[in-house]
Design brief:
50% of the residues lie in helices and 0% in strands. The chain has 138 residues and is mainly alpha-helical. The N and C termini lie far apart (93 Å).
């Protein structure tokens, strides 16, 4: 004879087995779908449910812009060459200015280090003795 408490316990055990199975099986399902290229385009849930891929099945690694993500540049186009490049003479002139600045800085450093202090610094005061503090004295 089965009592009410035993029936409730069997129901709880059956529910626990179902949830345990789901907890065990679901990561395997999502893990296997993560191995496919569809998971990269549609996400894990889209790969499991079979949603159509928003990307064409073109074998070229360069995908054209579809208009939905305009903040990303199209890698299929090449930008124009830059026109504001410096010439060799301008670069050499800038390097000469930097060399002059470095030489002037070194001269300033040598002049600063050569400055003599006119008189020695004063000696610090002596450390006063520790106060004689004893409890109970006035």
């Amino acid at each position: 004879m089965v009592t009410g408490s035993q029936e409730g316990g069997r129901g709880i055990a059956a529910t626990a087995r179902v949830f345990g199975t789901l907890i065990f099986v679901m990561p395997m399902v999502f893990g296997l779908t993560a191995c496919s290229d569809r998971a990269l385009d549609t996400g894990l849930l889209g790969a499991v449910t079979g949603q159509p891929s928003p990307v064409s099945d073109n074998t070229s690694p360069i995908r054209g812009m579809s208009g939905e993500r305009t903040e990303y540049p199209n890698l299929g186009t090449v930008p124009a060459r830059p026109t504001d490049l410096t010439t060799e003479a301008e670069r050499q002139q800038a390097m000469d200015r930097l060399a002059q600045d470095r030489a002037a800085s070194r001269r300033t450093k040598e002049q600063t280090e050569a400055i003599q202090v006119p008189e020695p610094l004063p000696t610090p005061m002596a450390v006063p003795p520790r106060p004689d503090l004893r409890p109970g004295r006035d």
